[in-house]
Fold each of these.
Amino acid sequence: MKVLGIESSCDETAASVVEDGRQVLSSVIHSQVKLHEPFGGVVPELASRNHSLWILGVVEQALADADTDLHGLDGVAVTEGPGLIGSLIVGTQTAKAMARAAGLPLVGVNHVHAHLIAAFLGPDPLDFPYIGLAVSGGHTSIYLVEAADRFTVLGRTLDDAAGEALDKAGIQLGLPYPGGVHMDRVAVDGDADFHHFPRAFLRDRPLDFSFSGMKTALKQYLKSIEQPLDARTVANIAASFQQAVVDVLVHKVVQAAVRTGVKTIVVAGGVAANSVLRRDLSRRCDLEGLRLVLTPIELCTDNAAMVAALGYYYLSGQADPLQVHFDLDVDPFPRHVIFRRGTQ
Ligand code: KG4
Ligand code: ZN
């Protein structure tokens, strides 16, 4: 079954064709990073306008790369939320129009769930159930994933997402946008023990996160030391800050596995590309006798292959999209834009 996936929830316009939820036939991503760079963050109005400029070209390219056209597909899957409402509308309306024109079934999928399914597209064998850590610029949550329609939130951030904390730290350290990517890059030459940043383990909420205190701690620390910072000091501070974020993520996701007795951990989302998180979690899982399935780096950040992969379960009848509860603390988004062949 060939599924076209469309993703436009934030600042990537993406389309992909995936076969049977496993094999990526094409994956095209148009990134808006350069567009938002001068503002130090995603500007929603610019994002949605740019999606509408690019989306048709991106979809056409994905179809061409997969050597197919709309009539060679078995269904369409689109991210329906969470995300920026104007951006989501561009993707969902495009998907609706294409599905209607070609007489294809269409399913809307949850963006965070799609991140947590992306690991199925990698080389490591994977099966349900697993503990999923979804860690990105917008989300930091731990899930028990029992099926493509059974995602249970075990813990979530009470304030900033981990990627947001890294991005904001990057700005404070004068690094380019997006901060998380450049924190990882410069931290390679830094000393993670240079400065101790607080780790919020929240003992009464063992699987929840809080990162906002770290941001304040960094601001205060930067005020207390001599400026401007040389490159070595920036690297040391970036490494120390990143280590604090990673320590909390590793501790909590392992706790979730221990508490539930589920032996497999999957890490997904933009921050799952972080080299220190990948290294430390691998080591810790080895020690704890847990199996770690890392999402392939190119599928960690936003893409449409993960959307097509999740859509496949719904379109093939292996999971029921109406069972999926949109239980996230997110902006409003259009619910379940679902119709099947021959309806609506
Ligand atoms: O999943 P994603 O593309 O978009 C959201 O759904 O948020 O994640 C983007 C986030 C940004 O905060 C970015 O700084 C972070 O992922 N990120 C990283 C790395 N690559 C991307 N953070 C740390 N280390 C990386 N290597
Ligand atoms: Zn994402």
Note: The radius of gyration is 20 Å.
Amino acid sequence: MINSPICGLLGIEHPIIQGGMAWVSDGTLAAAVSNGGGLGIISAMSADAGYLSRQVARARSLTDRPFGVNVMLMSPYAGEVARTVADMGVSVVTTGAGNPSKYMKMWIDSGVAVIPVVASVALARMMERSGASAVIAEGGESGGHVGDTSTLVLVPQVCDAVGIPVIAAGGIADGRGFAAVRALGACGVQIGTRFLVADECSIHDNYKDKIIKASDIATVVTGRRLGHAVRSLKTPFSRAYLKAEYDSALPDEDLEKLGVGALRLAAVEGDAEHGCFLAGQVAGMVKKRQRAADIISEIMAEAEVVIKGASEWAV
Ligand code: TUI
């Protein structure tokens, strides 16, 4: 049994938070992760508040345990979704792809625990001052929207800078990764990529197959030219996008249009040609499909072996 301050804070058994992944993290997956003892997260993605309400209702029909909502701050519906999180009595909110300062007071006043994803020490400090319960320090190994600093470098610096609990994300898929970030000072992990292949994850089978077959060098970062670096699997889409990014004759607006709808094409249609299959660098370590609860218990059992064994590393 591994204890952590975030278990008491969030009312969960194991300090594993599921990543809020657009077109992936729905009420069904979130409930399965929460039933497995972690904290399931529903992604509000770029959908309206009605979508979020339906997913929260779905999760509540499948679990009595706490779960959270991820608000993607670049969403055109971020404002109405933020209000819905407060109104529906969701216990935890995580945020991504921006600075959630303008929503923090509303959430905290409504009793929602706020756990922002940060990619820098500066934002972590600001979030602590604004009343965040914890922060998720997400390194550039992760899938989707990424910062520049790796997990190994970001996590200890964020731990040194803030007094609230730090959860590590990016590059963690097993108990070794859990133990490693515990050594860096994190008291829990956020995991996305490994949950892509959970039985309860409803993405297209082609997506799951691509994750299982991925190698260590299977991902690439695109979108740097537009200021939204995004990590995904190397596919015809990402290669074409990267090529277009280096084409200085192509206007930014046209480049922007290339990506529209590509996440849905990957997750819902499994479109190997035109889909954008977001994944972290750990895709190369994900080798089998499993129930969400088994993913969690396997990671915790591995972590315990590594952490207990570490006492023999020094004599
Ligand atoms: O948000 C994510 N991952 C995501 S969001 C997403 S949807 C999307 N689609 C296309 C383009 C862009 C996004 C897919 N994956 N992870 C959390 C995360 N947040 N990673 C990095 C950050 C971050 C970056 C800068 C958080 C705050 C930040 O600060 C900005 C500021 O204003 O200080």
Note: The chain is about 40% helix and 15% strand.
Amino acid sequence: MSAHLDLEESEPDVATDGVWLTCIECGEQFAPFAEIRYTCDHCDGLLEVRYADLPTWEDFGGASTPESGPYGVWRYSAALPFEEGVSLPEGGTPLHYVPRLEEETGVNTLRVKHEGMNPTGSFKDRGMTVGVRVAREVGVDRLACASTGNTSAALAAYGARAGMETLVLLPAGKVAAGKVAQASLHGARILEVDGNFDSCLDIVQDLAARGEAYLLNSLNPFRLEGQKTIGLEIMERFHADEGRYPDRIVLPVGNAGNTAALYKCFRELRKVGAIDDDEVPKLTGVQAENSAPMVEAIEEGNDEVRRWENVETRATAIRIGNPVNAPKALPGIRETGGTAVAVSDEEITDAQRSLAEEGVGVEPASAASIAGLRKLRETGEIEADEDVVCLTTGHLLKDPDAAYEAGGEPEPVPNDTEAVLDHLGE
Ligand code: F0G
């Protein structure tokens, strides 16, 4: 089945340099930088960034190499609201071959887009390079986010780079050690909330509404513009290597920001004719089974996602019960002919080990993509002739405790070569 994307669009009457914001629910338009808003003034719907001129492949300036000018996110500035951002720099991540996993899962091609190779070790950097640039444009001095960890690490680093104050709200005791360490050393003020991620997001939205800080969660539509470049990189690289586009992209889902960003990427490519309907990859979301409201909505065919109050998983990055980008992401999964699937913590850890055996070190949430691929191969929903890209969103070092648990035990030996040889011979 080929995708059928909704490409309807209205003409702008409020554009600034060809950029404006549109409410995805009621279509109301807003000038992008004149006032700070995160959702629609009229209906509170999610906002999306729109452009008068969308680019096609030629507009990105030829071969993508570190030597050929801007590399990574800003190579795609023709598809972004600015020419450059607050950059460390970010993007340009590897699209690994994983031959053993490819053979085991029995798909035609399997590649792994490793977003853990970004400056702070997760894809969040792509959103922050744009988001913090917008913060400068609208003239704020304090940035804030709620986070399961990675967003806070990225915001802290990009805020520091821009010389801005940052405030991060984290669910107490539920954030992996590497991420808190990053936020702390980059100088963010860290507030540990006695609640889960969803309650942190409620509070930070209240703070933003009262003008206390500029919100840089993925509710902020500019974040998703940066994250859209994951899709551009996958499509361009895969096509350069294989001569075709991938059939499917499998990704872990928390707030569903990446799912929404990839869907937007494909719609924009479709709109300018850079790809056809039958070249749109099927968006396939994976959640942990005790944090799976999106999977529930897809399986039950619901238009809205029910908020899960009690969520739990070892993949703390995606321990989220209220995916705020669901209204953007659900149509993306449906229109591309994709699906969503839940996996257990054990399946996630197994997948983390399998990736590590190929030399690809990821945090648990990232491995959910491989665990989801395995499950959908078992059920036959992903077919043997498919070209699949799995997205791994964060680096192994983000969650050292999970890595220790999944890995082998160190073996104590005496301080003596003969004794070491004896030990090895045992
Ligand atoms: N993978 C990792 C490693 C993440 O950190 C996140 C989200 C996701 C996947 C889910 O991405 O929200 O776009 O569906 N982490 C956020 C944070 C919530 O605060 O770091 P999504």
Note: The pocket of F0G is lined by residues 122, 124, 147-151, 218, 252-258, 317-318, 363, 365-366, 393-394 (CB under 6 Å).
Amino acid sequence: MKRSLLSAGFLALLGFAAVRAEEPKNHDFDVVRDESKVPAYQLPPVLVSSEGDRITTPEEWTNVRRPQVMALFGNLVYGVVPVPETPVRTSYERLRTDGKFMDGLATRKDVRIRFENAKGSAEMTVLVFTPNGAKGPVPAFLQLSFVNTKDDGHDADPSRAGYLRNGLPLAEFLRNGFGLVVLSQGALVRHNEVEFQSGIHPLFYREGQSFPKANEWGVIAAVSWSASRVLDYLGTEPSIDAKRIAAVGHSKMGKATLWAVAQDRRFAMAVAAQSGCAGAALWKRDFGENMEKMVTRFPYWLCRNAWKFSRNEDDLPVDQHMLLACIAPRPIYIASGSEDLWADPRGEYLGAYHASEVYRLLGKKGLDSEASPAVGEVLAGGDVGYHNRAGGHSVELYDWQKFIEFAGRHLKAR
Ligand code: GCU
């Protein structure tokens, strides 16, 4: 799959940097949607070090290979968070407590997390829902959400009793003994930011800097960073056990979830639904959305170094199975939608399957078959869970129930 860097797509990309990408109405692009058109590709071996040495022990993985893989993802794909010139101070403020939320099922707390240094300030509001009557601190899901938390609350539609406006079946979490924490992606960085003059980035600029460097954090990495800051806060929240937090996200937020959990080992588990390109799906299959589509439509979701791999995924020294592997030995659940070809269900399965090599090295149970399971079949008996639900790009009650069951097995049994 040799392609010219000077393709029309790449030139278009260079001219694109200054303008805001418009989201097309549909995803009927000229991308591969037919399995027989997937190019021949070779995955970078997850268990061979950059020096060419075979990795055969958990210690070699943890001390040698994993740091190499994380540095590659940081510098070439998502971008690293720079060290700010002046430390960022963080403060928490409880804005509201409602002890009788959802007919008394839950206590809801709205918490403002504020970041500040000499360069400026930014803030996010996080919603914390905990089941009333719990005997002690509960495990919880941290949802990276598209919905602005300021607008969240009960779903107004009576047929959606038990749901939040952001689509989450809150009652289902509570009934199963889980808390739920919600952060909104747009709080610290805009959905398709191209200027980086507001939000969290300016607090981290060095003298004279006004834009992230080529290897510095883009939009997704900033959302991932915010998830870790919420985890810091949860360490101070007595109703929640911060050691039993499953981060969960759909689509773009699935991508942000995986990068957050890979980087921050305090997260106990990751759930990524239809995370697709830059999520669980393999780049080198070039199926559905690919690097060119991603970086032309959303130029800074990743870091600028990722642009080099537009129409040139073969040169990328990592693929997404290696990111999932960096989450091991912690449990991970990947969910696809059978009609969501843009996110490449087969590529998402293969990402999880190839990551399983590392789970096995660490004494955990991964996915054993290279063949994808049938649509609707649930693989949740081990530490790498997967299902491909019939249907398209959404998270349904069915999906949430599978995530909650899987988390129940891993986070409740302790
Ligand atoms: C677009 C984008 C995907 C992303 C999705 C979403 O379709 O191309 O990469 O996952 O938006 O976040 O819903």
Note: Residues 1-26 have pLDDT under 50 and may be disordered.
